[in-house]
Amino acid sequence: MWSSRPPKSAISTGPRNSFEITGPTNGDTPEAIEARSCLARGELAAGKFGKAEAHATETYDLAVAALRTRSLDDRRLQEALATAIEIEALALTGQGARSMAVERLHNELERYRESPIGARIQSNIDLVSLEGRPAPRLDAREHLGRPMPELNTLKGKVILLFFWAHWCSICKEESPLIAQLADRYRARGLVIGAPTQRYGYVDGGRPAAPDRELRYIEQVRDKNFNFLRTETVPISEGIHREYGVASVPMLVLLDRQGVVRLYHPGRITEDAAMTPPIYLRREPRWPAAVALAAVACLSIALAPGLSIGPPWLFPAIVALLLAPTILLHRAGYHTMDRWFGMATTAVVTLELVAALIRLVTALPSRRESPKALLLSAASIWLANLLVFALWYWLYWRLDAGGPHGRDTRASHTSGAFLFPQMTMTSETKSATGQNRWSPTFLDYLFLAFNTSTAFSPTDTPALARWGKALMMLQSLISLTVLALLAARAVNIL
Fold it and tell me: Phi/psi class of residue 277: alpha, beta or left (left: φ > 0; alpha: ψ in -120 to 50)?
């Protein structure tokens, strides 16, 4: 696809899809350099990746040389340089060297980030990288240690693939960092896989038969990558080809849904290696369990005439629903976990509304003492706060897919509520440490508290219609309780 219309005199299509410069080139003028970039694009379109890469490299060198006396404000020079970078990356990808392409694009982005072509290079990274796409298969007939499980059996786990080679000195230098990463986050569901392959030689570049090289790979693993003795090490050229790995070291991170979230060729810094990926930082679920238990306990404080059945009945129902919800979540059955969670939250919501109705009907009859009514109203108000915090945060895919959906995202950039962090620029997020921010139960509890007290969202407006409807219902319940208390106080006076 042409990013700009090529000059008509610059290229011509000859027989067998070959491309050649036909007009005068005038050496290194911006027009001639742009024409050569069109030649590289033509070879890419013809599927001649080697020639496309060669022409793109030549165009890049000419453009960089021209920049010594010219500026990137020149539109033709800007287009030529950006096209050369793009075509080289696409040509490398076409030849199975995706990792090399991504590494070069990252290098160019560091060089030209603030220039007019910075955004285009970033879009090329998004195009070439596997990030955001379903992970390719991990088929391997040979392996050291235990075999690599199928990806579909690892759903719910975060997978870090460490591509290495027996001759790679940088891989050996990074080995302690990867070992620390594995030790720190294995308990949170991190699975390590370390694919490698044969290269036809052993130490000193001496040719080796497959069996001998395999023994040498095992020796190098035991000596320089000791932590891999307990991990799976597939020996497969096919995995490298599927993931486009042409250079090592290479790190690929798959989220709990089997989607590639990190595609990092080359060295990784210690800070980056020790920073936990967002996919390992699950939102804690215990606040929801505590909130549900609190709602169940608040029902015990209701006056006898405001509750259904004996005081222990409602807490027992909540416990019976909450127990399988926790067990299903821990077992990784997130769909069933969500439905049980919905049922539990729905039950406590119905009990909340029923208690409010009984309170309204009990007030005129004066069957209950003022102290009992006051305690019951306070219990209903607090239950209202907790129940709607649960609805905002939990299950039903209400905000960005609920906690499980948010676990699979790198950061929280969209949802049913507009949190202040979502309005920050990328520079402000980085400066304040909010670039990977994601809301937790406390954020939704704060939202529910403001809705119950101020009858408005304050700093976090609702964007989705369901969010607005829930906030109106919560405000109505809170206002009704407060109005009843005020009416009772006036009546007593």
Answer: beta
